[in-house]
């Protein structure tokens, strides 16, 4: 995003409009999107580093889609761990859940709600943290933000965001179209903040 777009966003979230998306601006954005103060600050710490590195802040559409999708997945950045027990994922070979207890152990965590032993192994290796052996670490907001940005990049979601393809992004994150109406509503909010 250019400085003018960032300044408009900063004005909308009521921080100093200096055209630089730093930790303070990200904290205000996460607060606006539903996170509590402590969670917002920790998510901002990760976002300030990893969002630019992943090219997510290159365009307003990428930025809007990213935050809308994560907002849906994490219940407005309030849940860094899935509310359900994870029992529904037990025995799901498509998620790599092949050992007894894998469903609960590898339930959704982080702002993108990474799920399944295979994803914990893959993305843990990509970020250099052993998420497979220590899945609870994925719920740490700053680590979850790194995982989310890595997931976004690996799955090619910037290209779908550039095409404004909310359904395509939803399928790559969710495997289906669960919560599509909420994702669209959150996207509309994000687009509104960026205008």
UniProtKB/TrEMBL annotation:
Among InterPro entries, the record links this protein to:
Cell_Wall_Dynamics_Protein, Glyco_hydro_19_cat, Lysozyme-like_dom_sf
Q: Which species is this UniProt entry from?
A: Allosphingosinicella ginsenosidimutans
Q: Which PANTHER family match?
A: FAMILY PROTEIN, PUTATIVE-RELATED, GLYCOSYL HYDROLASE FAMILY 19 DOMAIN-CONTAINING PROTEIN HI_1415
UniProt KW Hydrolase keyword: yes
- Which Gene Ontology BP terms does the record give? cell wall macromolecule catabolic process; chitin catabolic process
Q: Does the keyword S-adenosyl-L-methionine apply?
A: no
Q: Which domain of life is it from?
A: Bacteria
The Glycoside hydrolase family 19 catalytic domain sits at 61-154
Give the UniProt keywords, A-Z.
Answer: Hydrolase
- What GO MF terms are annotated? chitinase activity
Which residues does UniProt call coiled coil? Answer: none
Kindly provide the name given to this protein in its UniProt entry: Glycoside hydrolase
């Amino acid at each position: 995003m250019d400085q003018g777009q960032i300044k408009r966003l900063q004005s909308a979230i009521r921080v100093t409009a200096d055209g630089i998306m730093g930790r303070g601006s990200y904290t205000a954005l996460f607060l606006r999107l539903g996170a509590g103060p402590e969670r917002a600050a920790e998510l901002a710490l990760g976002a300030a580093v990893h969002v630019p590195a992943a090219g997510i802040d290159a365009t307003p559409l990428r930025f809007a889609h990213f935050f809308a999708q994560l907002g849906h997945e994490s219940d407005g950045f309030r849940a860094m761990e899935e509310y359900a027990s994870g029992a529904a994922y037990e025995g799901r070979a498509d998620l790599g859940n092949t050992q007894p207890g894998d469903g609960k152990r590898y339930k959704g965590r982080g702002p993108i709600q990474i799920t399944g032993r295979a994803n914990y192994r893959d993305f843990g290796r990509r970020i250099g943290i052993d998420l497979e052996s220590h899945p609870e670490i994925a719920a740490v907001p700053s680590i979850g933000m790194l995982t989310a940005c890595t997931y976004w990049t690996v799955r090619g979601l910037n290209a779908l965001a550039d095409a404004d393809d909310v359904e395509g992004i939803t399928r790559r994150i969710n495997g289906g179209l669960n919560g599509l109406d909420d994702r669209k509503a959150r996207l509309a909010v994000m687009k509104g903040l960026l205008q």
